[in-house]
Amino acid sequence: MIGLVLVAAGSGQRLGAGVPKALVRVAGRSMIEHCLRTVSQVDRIGQVVVVAPPGRADDLVSTGVIPEGVRVVAGGASRDASVRHGLGVLDAGTQFVLIHDAARPFAPPEVFERVLDALVAGQDAVIPVMPVTDTIKVVRDGVVHSTPVRDELVAVQTPQGFRLDILKDAHATLDVRVTDDAMLVERAGIEVHVVDGSQRSFKITTGFDMRVAESVLAQQDPVVGGSVAFDPTVQEDSMLAMVGIGTDVHAFDPGSPAWVAGLFWPGEVGLAGHSDGDVVAHACADAVLNACGLGDLGGLIGTDRAEYRGASGAEILRAVAVHARKQGFDLVNIGVQMIGNRPRIGPRRLEAQEVLGAAAGCPVHVSATTTDGLGLTGRSEGLAAMATALVTRSR
Ligand code: CTP
Ligand code: MG
Fold it and tell me: What's the domain range around 322?
């Protein structure tokens, strides 16, 4: 049995996106999702473990970003600790393991296959490498100490493959700071073999790398601006982006608790409805369905479905997001505006964005407006909301 550990728990300090790097979207989907799609194309991999950023595992599963059948564990303080967490949950019968960085979201399936071929042929440790094009120097205290012969140097990528028992032993006796797994088994005296990596397996570390990644996917050479065949054997995964709109209106109902934008509002008047009447969350859900061409909330969950009676708006949004992902869509973002006099969204806007964003598994931006005393919202008879959603799917 062959297992794969996707290490995705880093905070992405150098990228500085404000969210863990593996959750950052590049070319329409998160780095974790890119990697999982590639891994699903490698038939020999029987078990996949995602090492998730601390505190994010549950949301990644419940929103369908991590699909059923993929195991999830929380990461550690360092990459090697995260790898150990992942190794710890692999099935007992696992013979070989691939360790892959989520920060290399475009590593193509061929590289996974090459590493596996070498393992199955009897190697204990296999890494994908690329020739270096720069001259590399060793510098100490600001002074060049030496210049290794470039012909002997390679740049190392992931996935790195190992016999599981060997890698586990190496990790158990770890006593240095390592930057990849091969370094550990080398120190244990194990021969590490190399196979060809790919230019597409480049690592995303900085904002510049993000721009390069977007350009590569658009098949543009970021430097000379021309069109380049980055890896002629690989079919580019071209994306189709689609927007959708969603609207919802509910009348105020003084007997109901006030749930708006995924939040409970003490002291505010609630809304009538089959569910909790959360117009903001419902508009978001409808916008997602509309963008995907999957109909609308009425059609999907109806008013006759008992399981949604009294369901919170956030739960409905989550259910819709899961449904959309199962149909092959990626959610890029949602923008929603509440229309009405109360509640005052401003002071709790960020809180609302967090709750709705966690439910949808993508950024949700919330704003609010009044209608100058006009119409049902102006007369405080009820609340309305309008949302747009952007989704993508592979062609
Ligand atoms: N990683 C991890 N757990 C950590 C640190 C890193 O799982 N405690 C993972 C990252 O998610 C990434 C891979 O190891 O997929 C390579 O790490 P790196 O590119 O350095 O990512 P970050 O540590 O997130 O970035 P930075 O060093 O800029 O904070
Ligand atoms: Mg790091």
Answer: 240-393
